[in-house]
């Protein structure tokens, strides 16, 4: 029995020894395999399976080595995403990326991607335009995690990159993600028509400088099968920024891109911008808020509709300043869909207080409708109305001033008539202009007018002033004038029946003394017509006495009831007069 017991324990020790040797050998072999897989790389059949799974997921990655590294899983080194032989389009690079597999599928012998984690990545995007030097958009410090969800969906988490001096954080989801490979790699084939606009925007952004690196957050939702269904939200916050247009403090910007729908084929972009202060060469803005909405048609690069509103608490410029300013604009594309150069813009500007070199107004309002092209704001057709209330200026004040303007640029009917002798009038030749104006309650220390109204018209080369009507001192003045810009000939006529003694304060001392020789009970009626040739438009120091007076022609008629001349009583008088 003792011998049998010893043999039993001897056999047990032998089994334990072999088990220990086997386990240590297995651990050694496992460690050697892991060391081999880490240093040399995964076998080719594993690489092929991983590559096939990546392509199935919509990723076409190229790398120099695929190895296994402990808890981090499969590591791809020196990865590249993008066509090497294509000079255009985006290219992504990374020192290494971690490929995480689904453990449950791996136990069954299947390779399924769970996530892709990239560190220390960078990208570049050459934007090539004919007859222009190449432009390269670069980004670095790229870190991201892409999670592969069921039903061909990606989830982008913790995407960060440094680009154009800003830190960009991007998150979102992509459905039908397997189509992303053909969409991204085909982007260079469709970018040529937009390269000039993209280059211009990026060149402008490069000129912006920030006191501290701004952070841009973007949340996006997209469909790889149809990128027109993209929707995104943007958030930007910066304490101080210097741009080509000026310096901005306390900048906050949010944006939202909404895709087209079955009922509305236009995509929508909504922007909100708030700035504490804006300093530029032309002046300063304090506490500004901007909201805008842009409707974009997929077949037309120009926006179909633009709605915008700007609110400014305080505005100071080299021309004047205003308080509680509101600017509203509505721009619509008109005509057929391919006529992207024709727009109608409705503009409304309201200011609670307006100050300028000429004076101030308690309330100012401008309403205008302009038809123009996208590339130029030069009006083809324009209608406007300006209203100023509570006007105060150095000469006096007025209750209200209103000006209505209608402008048309007709199709050219022949060669231009203007030349250098027209001076500044040459700029108005292409247009036809008409206006109506009215001022009420005009008061000054030397003059009081109840109402002034005037209509006018410009049709090259004729400038007409019609229906000039003035109500003053319970009487009236009516006048008309016509100027031929090409010949500089001025013709005018008018009539008045107000008491000219009321205007003595506007005259010289000698004229006042001469006027006081005349007395009347009822002011006389005066009618007159005149013609003269004005000095050349390019002459700054015109000699009115030497150039204009020899061409002056004047004739008229006056009639007066009871009065006196040098205290000599007169019952009535009337006469014609002329001067040439």
Description:
- By secondary structure, the protein is an alpha+beta fold.
- Helix content is 16%, strand content 54%.
- It has helices at 2-39, 44-56, 103-107, 180-185, 187-190, 195-206, 509-515, 544-548, and strands spanning 61-62, 65-69, 73-81, 91-101, 113-127, 135-149, 153-163, 166-175, 209-210, 215-223, 231-243, 246-258, 267-280, 283-296, 303-317, 320-333, 343-356, 359-372, 381-393, 397-408, 432-443, 448-459, 462-472, 475-484, 489-496, 518-520, 525-533, 553-560, 563-565, 568-570, 573-579.
- β13 and β14 form a beta hairpin.
- The model is unreliable at 185-192 (pLDDT under 50).
Content of β-strand? over 45%
Provide the structure class: alpha+beta
Q: Tell me the number of helical segments per DSSP (H or I, 4 or more residues long).
A: 8
Oligomer status: single chain
Write down how many β-strands occur, each being a DSSP E stretch of 2 or more residues: 31
Assign an overall shape. Answer: rod-shaped
| N- to C-terminal distance | 161 Å
Averaged pLDDT, please?
83
Largest sheet: 28 strands, mixed
Helix coverage percent of residues?
A: 10-25%
Poorly predicted spans: 185-192
Rounded to an integer in angstroms, the radius of gyration calculated over CA atoms is 41 Å
């Amino acid at each position: 029995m003792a011998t049998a017991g010893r043999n039993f324990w001897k056999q047990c020790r032998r089994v334990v020894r072999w088990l220990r040797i086997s386990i240590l050998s297995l651990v050694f072999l496992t460690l050697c395999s892991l060391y081999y897989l880490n240093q040399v790389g995964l076998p080719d059949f594993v690489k092929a399976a991983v590559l096939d799974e990546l392509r199935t997921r919509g990723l076409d990655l190229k790398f120099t080595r695929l190895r296994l590294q402990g808890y981090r899983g499969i590591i791809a080194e020196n990865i590249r995403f993008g066509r090497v032989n294509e000079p255009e389009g985006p290219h992504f690079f990374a020192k290494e990326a971690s490929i995480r597999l689904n453990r449950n599928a791996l136990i069954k012998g299947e390779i399924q991607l769970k996530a892709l984690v990239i560190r220390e990545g960078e990208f570049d995007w050459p934007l090539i335009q004919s007859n222009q030097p190449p432009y390269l958009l670069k980004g670095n410090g790229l870190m991201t995690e892409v999670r592969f969800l069921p039903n061909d969906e990606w989830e982008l988490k913790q995407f960060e990159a440094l680009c154009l001096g800003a830190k960009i954080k991007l998150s979102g989801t992509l459905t039908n993600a397997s189509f992303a490979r053909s969409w991204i790699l085909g982007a260079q084939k469709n970018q040529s028509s937009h390269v000039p606009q993209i280059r211009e925007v990026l060149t402008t952004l490069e000129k912006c400088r920030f006191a501290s690196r701004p952070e841009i957050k973007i949340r996006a939702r997209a469909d790889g099968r149809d990128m027109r269904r993209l929707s995104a939200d943007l958030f930007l916050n910066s304490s101080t920024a210097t741009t080509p247009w000026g310096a901005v403090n306390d900048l906050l910007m949010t944006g939202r891109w909404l895709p087209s729908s079955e009922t509305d084929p236009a995509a929508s972009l909504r922007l909100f911008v708030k700035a504490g202060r804006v300093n530029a060469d032309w002046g300063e803005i304090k506490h500004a808020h901007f909201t805008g909405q842009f409707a974009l048609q997929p077949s037309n690069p120009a926006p179909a509709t633009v709605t915008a509103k700007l609110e400014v608490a305080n505005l100071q410029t080299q021309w004047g300043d205003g308080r509680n300013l509101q600017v509203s604009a509505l721009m619509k594309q008109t005509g057929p869909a391919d006529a992207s150069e024709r727009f109608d813009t409705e503009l409304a500007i309201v200011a609670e207080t307006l100050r300028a070199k000429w004076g101030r107004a308690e309330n100012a309002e401008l309403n205008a409708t302009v038809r123009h092209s996208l590339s130029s704001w030069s009006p083809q057709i324009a209608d406007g109305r300006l209203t100023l209330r509570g006007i105060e200026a150095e000469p006096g004040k007025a209750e209200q001033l209103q000006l209505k303007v209608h402008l048309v640029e007709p199709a050219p009917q022949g060669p231009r008539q203007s030349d250098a002798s027209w001076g500044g009038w040459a700029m108005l030749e292409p247009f036809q202009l008409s206006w109506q104006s009215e001022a009420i309650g005009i008061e000054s220390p030397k003059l009081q007018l109840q109402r002034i109204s005037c209509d006018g018209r410009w049709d090259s080369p004729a400038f007409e002033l019609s229906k000039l009507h003035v109500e003053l001192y319970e009487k009236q003045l009516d006048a008309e004038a016509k100027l031929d810009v090409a010949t500089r000939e001025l013709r005018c006529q008018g009539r008045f029946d107000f008491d000219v003694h009321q205007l003595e304060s506007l005259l010289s001392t000698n004229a006042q003394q001469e006027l006081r020789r005349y007395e009347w009970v009822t002011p006389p009626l005066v009618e007159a017509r005149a013609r003269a040739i004005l000095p050349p438009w390019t002459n700054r120091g015109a000699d009115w006495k030497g150039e204009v007076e020899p061409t002056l022609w004047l004739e008229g008629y006056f009639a007066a009831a009871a009065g006196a001349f040098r205290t000599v009583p007169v019952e009535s008088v009337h006469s014609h007069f002329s001067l040439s």
